[in-house]
Amino acid sequence: MLKFISAALLVAASVFGSANAQAPRTLDQVKSRGALNCGANPGLIGFGAPDAQGNWAGLDVEYCRAIAAAIFGDASKVKFIPLSANDRFKALLAGEVDVLIRNSTWTISNDTPPGLLFVGVNYYDGQAIMVRRKLGATSVMQLSGASICAQRGTTTELNLADYFRVNKLKYKLVSFDTGAETIKAYDAGRCDAFTTDASSLYAERLKLSAPDDHMVLLEIISKEPLGPLTRDNDSQWFKLVRWVHFAMLNAEELGVTKANVDQMLKSENPEIRRLLGIDGAFGEGLGLTKDWAYRIIKQVGNYGESFERTVGNRSVLKMMRGQNALWTNGGLQYAPPIR
Q: What class is the 24-124+225-329 domain?
């Protein structure tokens, strides 16, 4: 999503890096506290957002719950900490959250400051552009001379500039400090188009006064691999967070679901038996019990199940799997084996 890192964050990261050796293990802290502190988006439908009753839902939210299920055997033992784009990395470095799962893009500028470590990619995204249907545009190539709303101080602006320069198109940038201001301005007609990550466009479209009057153009103008981050001073915790995602992917590939996981405990398939902790004790290296993956699948489900109910066909967004399909189905989601 938003990928700007301030000079203040770099200073904070440098200070953090000097104290790495003294930092206590994150897993021990989480267990002692009795809950996972998960940095979340304050309001992105499909990825991380609370409803009117304070119940959180979304793809990133379910990743947080899967971690809690692996640790505690209770997916509800999560405290969601809503973080703005500007505050998210600083909150992680300061120890205010144990993990940041907030649709953050894996870029070199986000990955290289001391103290930050991307775990992987739980959603492959890309920047796109939304327009009003009455504009009559069906391609970005038809937007030469258009005014385009984007959030200030992010690589969203830079990607837009790169794409239009490469394709020799002119445009007028209309920028705002926050995402809320940007979408509000677009809805009010202050610009012809609105750009951000494609996944966000589908979510933000639902907030418009007349959602059906708008469409997301097909072109993807950048790579936006979204994923969680941990601090870089705790390799065990980093691996735990990473393997939670891998377990959900392996479960989907092996056909193990929330509904059939108990039946699968009787499977003779050696891969399923290792995944569910029947054979081997593969959770020990992560500081977990051998049934850690069973706990995840039983309480949250596999990656495909999570995808479909949060952003896919069973959700209000109804987005296609696309690049987020398993590698066996032509997608990019691929997990190392548990063995």
A: alpha beta
